[in-house]
């Protein structure tokens, strides 16, 4: 499954895809989450579409805002695997500029209530980052956030973390996990999922 945002174009004739895209370009998100099989298709591209399309996008200001979306929607194997949501909390100036507005303390509540697991963009060392560390990640100042993952495969990876016996490293779902589940459930619901596929 690929998660992309906006600007999903589909057409049988590659040349008309290019012309249509130029004429009605509405940029999507440059931030995408790709499945391994789709990433391999982008590299190997058994039908040569990924490389051909890449040539057309070479001179665009921000080619990632349309490349993956257009490639996904014009690939028979992947066109119905997209989730039209980029999982990021972003705010824009009005009217929008080329880049999103930097998030600050006044955006914290809106970001949390959006149920989106990612946000951008932040200024370096902004106070809102300290608040996220403290309240959401439970990170102490100048310390790492403890956590661990277990793969569950192989003899070496039978435990989730070397610190498990000390009650560190065990990830337990909290309010953020519930917000993420709610957001993904809504994005993948039958009502939303199919009608936001490639058009």
Automatic annotation (TrEMBL):
GO cellular component terms, semicolon-separated: membrane
Keywords for the protein's UniProt record, in alphabetical order: Glycoprotein, Glycosyltransferase, Membrane, Transferase
InterPro entries for the chain: GLCAT14A/B/C, Glyco_trans_14
UniProt GO MF annotations: glucuronosyltransferase activity
Keyword ATP-binding set for record: no
Protein's membrane topology: Single-pass type II membrane protein
Subcellular location: Membrane
Name of the molecule in the record: Uncharacterized protein
């Amino acid at each position: 499954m690929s998660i992309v945002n906006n600007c999903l174009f589909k057409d049988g004739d590659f040349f008309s895809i290019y012309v249509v895209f130029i004429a009605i370009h509405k940029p999507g998100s440059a931030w995408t989450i790709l499945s391994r099989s789709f990433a391999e298709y982008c590299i190997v591209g058994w039908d040569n579409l990924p490389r051909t399309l890449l040539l057309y996008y070479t001179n665009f200001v921000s080619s990632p805002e349309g490349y993956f979306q257009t490639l996904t929607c014009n690939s028979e194997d992947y066109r119905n695997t997209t989730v039209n949501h980029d999982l990021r909390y972003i705010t824009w100036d009005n009217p929008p500029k080329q880049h999103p507005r930097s998030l600050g303390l006044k955006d914290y509540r809106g970001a949390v209530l959006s149920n989106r697991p990612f946000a951008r963009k932040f200024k370096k060392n902004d106070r809102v980052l300290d608040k996220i560390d403290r309240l959401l990640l439970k990170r102490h100042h100048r310390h790492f956030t403890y956590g661990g993952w277990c793969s569950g495969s192989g003899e070496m990876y039978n435990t989730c973390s070397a610190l498990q016996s000390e009650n560190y490293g065990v990830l337990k779902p909290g309010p953020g996990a519930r917000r993420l589940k709610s957001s993904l459930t809504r994005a993948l619901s039958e009502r939303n999922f199919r009608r936001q596929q490639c058009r």
